[in-house]
Amino acid sequence: FTGIEGVDHDHGIHAFSFGPDGRLYFNFGNDSKQLADKYGQAIKDANTGLPIKTGVPAFRQGMAMRCNVDGSQVEVLAHNFRNPYEITVDAFGSLWQSDNDDDGNFATRINYVMEGGNYGFRDEITGANWRERRVGMHEEIPKRHWHQNDPGVVPNLLYTGAGSPTGICMYEEKLLPAVFQNQMLHCEALKNVVRAYPVAQNGAGYEAEIVNLMKSENQWFRPSDVAVAPDGSIFVSDWYDPGVGGHNMGDAGRGRIFRVAPKAGNYTVKPLDLSTPPAAVAALASSNNPTFFQAWQKVASFGDQAEPYLAELWNGEDQRLRGKALWLLSRLPASTKIYLEEAIADANDDIVITAIRVAKQLDPGHLINYLKKVPKDASNQVKREVAIALRYSGTMEAAELWSELALAYQGKDRWYLAALEIGADMHPDLYFNTLLRKGWERMNSQGGKDLVRSIDAKESLPLLYEMMIDPQTSQEDIARFARAFHFKSASTKNAYLEQLLKVEHPQQKFIRSYAIQQFPPNYINRNTGLKNLIRQILPTIEGSEAWLIAVDNMDLRNEAPLVLEQFLSGEDHLSKKAGEILFKMGQERLIESAFLKARQAEKNDYVDKLSRVGHIGANRLLRSWIEKRNLDPQLEIQIVNAIGNDINGQRMLLKMLQTGKIKDHLKTGAALKIAGSWDSKVRTEASKFLDDVKSKRGKPLPPIAKLRRKTGNIELGEEVFGTYCASCHQVNGEGIVFGPDLSEIGDKLPKQALYTAIIYPSAGINFGYEGYLLTMKDGTIYNGYIISETEDQVVLKMMGGVSQTIDRSQITAQKAMENSLMTAGLHQVMEENELINLVEYLSNLKDETIVSTD
To answer: Where does the pLDDT of residue 414 fall: very low under 50, low under 70, confident under 90, or very high at 90 and above?
Structure first.
């Protein structure tokens, strides 16, 4: 266990927090396959007894975990985060954490971590990336990013926009102003700010706002951690750098530490006295982690001698000190039951919640007895904790109690629903069937529908089916219910999906479309009756995504002319899917015939659509057109750019240059297109064809230190962005989704860092955009970054924004690329003023919204 933190700094363990239960809490960072391979199989989850692992490689999900201080009894507390940095624990044992989004998607989030929770970074079943299209996905990017429409996903506490969140702590002191007391303090390196997120109860969960504690206009202020000092002031560490993220530091030689406190008084720290039980108990009040750690250990070692002094805290008015005392009082063998029963009956919700958590850890054999003593009219906050505590039980008593909690759910509190989902997820059939046996007649209520949709019990399937075919069900709810089928594991699921294809319904087109998308391809091809049924209904859903999926899965080549129509006129994602299918069917002649008959303007659109397909056959077809056809010169230039969007096309263009099989007016454009290839061999060879371009600038670039002091023209810079960058990046919705969204890049990177990113792109590779090479059995090579990966398929995002679904059985090698996918040498094909204008434009792309008060 020791040494995990040293394997991968950015995606491993950033820091441990010491909890009031005497245990260590930490995040196991995302993309941690290296960590899982090295350590995961050697560590068993204390609750399940199974080896800890991140699942199939696609999942690469972050996890919140805890263990004893010696590394034993490791538990997974919650999972499916993207890249959580640090976790903090309050006096009641509540967990709080930040999680970083995919860059530029304004979905950085603050989480209240519910034990057992799924936090929705990837599809829980397939590991698919959030960008992959799915039934019923949310319109808002932050909620789509975290799969907030999926059953079983815990709500987010707060969205904080684009960001690079770092250290976090809990401030349970009195020195700072009241708004910061008993709240999280958190560093946001991208926004150059240290914040608090004051929370308020909201049903079974919370809501929060943003209040700045420390904000700088200097973009080099990069707060990396915040900690409470022994006197109640705080320290903030600043790594002081021009940029954040991507493993790249522009200034490794300087850093700063700030102390934040009221103006009056000097910083003085008294020697820590732990020599006697009353002194050690008094030190428990500190939020300074080393002080609290030492005090906790000493109080625990005193045993019964500390009880009178802990009891004073327990009987006091400060609820947080009462919570800290309860954790230690309950460890006294003779007193465990006494204090827990007293706490379960307490008038304060936080104390009752603490008692439930203590009982789970210290007296699990009697847990159900404590839970049964919680009043039926308890708040949803308390009921949330009871539901979660039932997760591992699996007894009839637990099922009865869970069903009582479920009957109280009214369909309005998503936090409460998430707690019920967690409580039932280890024993769904027992818990759900117990609910049904109680004469449950709430299927027409929103609460009932939510539970049917969310609980993966066999008996939920016929109810979900009935909800789908109800004539009163809206199209929006049909999509929600259809998505729920994706998460049902019962063997009868496909039989119900087949029945959905036969129902008469006002929304039958949507029902059929959604049902078809749920069938595994192999299942359709093994079932002759189902194949015939799908053939019959295809005309009723023609042109839809489901229609294309069915044509593809069943290899219906007679539908190729209709697929071509979809390719030419469908929405972007449907056009791309149709193009993939056409090339899989070997329909190059059909495509070429339509192209040759098209008008000139249509030909341009045609080439643009082909450039997004991502199939090597598209490159071969495009190459044949510029080699064998006499086309408009501008259209031929467009074709060259389309071919050069992936590594196979770049190598194709290089071979055309080397063999002279390319027209003279296309040579320079082709060489420019491949000059930035990640493949060093292609780059080197391309440079031989760029002498004219190299002489364009006439002199080398000045050093970055001089460039960053120059002022450019924003409007001209926007034009440069459109020429060189929009093929891979978006700004405010314009451009291609391949690399990170740059709509607020000026907040993240000042000019020096922007120049560095352009000139030396491989010096820092953004997390989630690491490139891979996939070599196929036929010799084809694909390169891009993986956005989805299952046991059967890999979905690769390639240059130009093209996504390619690849059959894993056809892959002979999968290798991580050492260099960035961002075009290298881009600055070499620009004039100096173009580069300066581009950086001026990018540095002014900032978040103009005001999200808090100082």
So the answer is: very high
The H or E element that residue 25 is part of is strand 24-28
Parallel, antiparallel, or unpaired: how do β-strands 75-81 and 117-118 relate? parallel
Find, among 775, 826, 821, the residue nearest to 798 by Cα.
821
Cα 684 off chain centre by: 37
SS3 call for 35: helix
Residues in the chain: 854
Question: What DSSP character marks residue 272?
Answer: P
Question: What local confidence, expressed as pLDDT, does residue 766 receive?
Answer: 60
Question: CB neighbours of 148 closer than 8 A, spacing ≥ 6?
Answer: 120, 138, 155, 156
Residue 592 is which amino acid? E
Contacts of 452 (CB under 8 A, 6+ apart): 443, 460, 463, 464, 467, 484
Instruction: Let me know if 539 is exposed, middle or buried by CB neighbors in 10 A (0-12, 13-18, 19+).
Output: exposed
The one-letter amino acid at 23: R
Q: How far apart are CA 519 and CA 119, in angstroms?
A: 26
Burial class (CB in 10 A: 0-12, 13-18, 19+), 316: exposed
Strand, helix or coil for residue 806: strand
DSSP state of 820: -
* Per-residue pLDDT reduced to its tens digit, 24-69: 999 876 644 455 555 555 556 667 666 555 443 334 678 898 989 9
Rg (CA), the chain: 30
Compute the distance between CA of residue 516 and CA of residue 511 in angstroms, rounded to an integer.
9
**Cβ neighbours, 10 Å, residue 852:** 15
In terms of pTM, does the model score above 0.90?
no
Mean pLDDT of the chain: 86
Q: Give the whole-angstrom CA distance, residue 685 versus residue 435.
A: 70
**What tens digit of pLDDT does each residue of 326-340 get?**
999 999 999 999 999
Q: What per-residue string of b and e applies to 449-462 under the rule 16 or more CB within 10 Å gives b?
A: bbbbbbbbbbbbbe
**Integer angstrom CA distances of residue 41 from 3, 56, 358, 735:** 15, 13, 29, 43
Q: Where are the alpha helices (DSSP H) in 330-427?
A: 336-344, 349-362, 367-372, 380-389, 396-407, 414-424
Task: Name the residue with tokens 């696609």.
Answer: 58
Number of neighbours of residue 618 by Cβ within 10 angstroms: 28
